[in-house]
Amino acid sequence: MEAAMGTLGSQSPLSFSSSLCNAKVSCGLLVYNVKIKSNRRLEVVCQGMLAPRKFVRKKRDEVFKDAADETKQKNWRKMMSEIEESGSAVSILKTQRNTKEPLPRDAVLGTLVRFKQLKRWNLVSEILEWLRTQHWWDFSEMDFLMLVTAYGKLGDFSKAERVLKYMNKKGYRPTVISQTALMEAYGRAKQYQKAEAVFRKMQASGPEPSPITYQIILKSLVEGDKYKEAEAIFEDLLNEKRASFKPDQKMFHMMIYMYKKAGDYTQARKLFAQMPERGIPQSAVTFNSLMSFEADYKEVSSIYDQMQRAGLKPDVVSYSLLIKAYGKARREDEALAVFEEMLDAGIRPTRKSYNILLDAFAISGLVEEAQTVFKTMRRHRVEPDLCSYTTMLLAYVNASDMDGAEKFFRRLKEDGLRPNVVVYGTLMKGYSKLDDVEKVMRVYERMRMQGVEPNQTIFTTIMDVHGRNSDFGNAVIWFNEMETRGYPPDKKAKNILLSLAKTPEEQHEANELTGNAAFQLEVKPNGMTSGLGVDSADLHEGGLTDTGHHHSLNGASTTNVLNGSNGTGSSGFDDEGNDDNDDDDYEEDDDDDLNFVSFKDKRELNFAT
Question: Contact at 8 Å (CB) between 28 and 308?
Answer without folding.
Answer: no
